[in-house]
Amino acid sequence: MTAIHARSRPARTGSAPSHIWDATPLTKVVLALALVVSAFPIYYMFIMATRTNDDASEVPPPLLPGGRLGENIERLLNTEDAHFLLGLTNSAIISITVTVSVVLISTLAGFAFAKLRFKGGKILLGLILLTMMVPLQQMGVVPLYQLMVDLGWTGQIKAVILPFLVNGFGVFMMTQYAQQAVPDELVEAARVDGASTMRIYANVILPALRPGMAVLALLVFMQTWNEFMWPLIVLTPDNPVVQTSIAALNQAHGTDYVMLFTGTAASVLPLFIVFVAFGRQIVGGLMEGAVKA
């Protein structure tokens, strides 16, 4: 009787009905429409970067690439007021430096808060959480600018790098990720084997945190690349970042829509490259975090 009952019971593995995971035709249509609506402005931006200003005023608008991309890029790079190539270079240096610093410090702090026991750890983590609740950049812009003046850093890209080298959200994210991804028993076993704290961090913690690190790196890179207010305040027009270069284009070529589309497309392209290069790790990290949650 028990054997018969056991044979009639569905297996646990793969027992969920397959139709639960099958998308209905309506779902596919809605997702396709959402994709078109979301991607069309970006697609149109790149299309207009290959066109002329006369094409920008056509009704209906052109939906196929033109042959003026090289000319438009040349005009963009030769615009003296914008210093666009310098803005791209500065943004790349700032974004890469800030991203590496935030990921490194966040993983170190996350490991310490999640797996090490020390006095005041919870209080320090609470203070970090408080920094996420207060808009420090907006509230502290005046004293921060005064600090940069006292240091003599105004007009230099290190004034944009320094305030963003540590990120409270990154520390909190890596703390939560380390608590879920790394069992305490694994850390204790490594310590019993004689591994030092830094050895545990390098050989045990970092491999487990790679998916979360990829997600954090993308978020920080995008946020730093798109930063506008603080660079506008602390940098000069002769030493811009890419976002302030686009603002200069808007002031110098307010009716030259193709120039604005070309500059915006050039500023978005590095983000596409980052996502394509690390997309698999980023999506894997998001999915792993969702499953663990």
Automatic annotation (TrEMBL):
**Stretch forming the signal peptide:** none
Q: Which UniProt keywords apply?
A: Cell membrane, Membrane, Transmembrane, Transmembrane helix, Transport
Q: Where is the ABC transmembrane type-1 domain?
A: 88-278
Q: Which domain of life is it from?
A: Bacteria
Query: How does the protein's chain sit in the membrane according to the entry?
Result: Multi-pass membrane protein
Primary localization = membrane
InterPro entries noted in UniProt: MetI-like (IPR000515), MetI-like_sf (IPR035906)
- Extract the PANTHER family matched here: ABC TRANSPORTER PERMEASE PROTEIN MG189-RELATED (PTHR43744:SF12), ABC TRANSPORTER PERMEASE PROTEIN MG189-RELATED-RELATED (PTHR43744)
Family designation = Belongs to the binding-protein-dependent transport system permease family.
The name of this protein is Cellobiose transport system permease protein
Q: Which species is this UniProt entry from? A: Streptosporangium sandarakinum
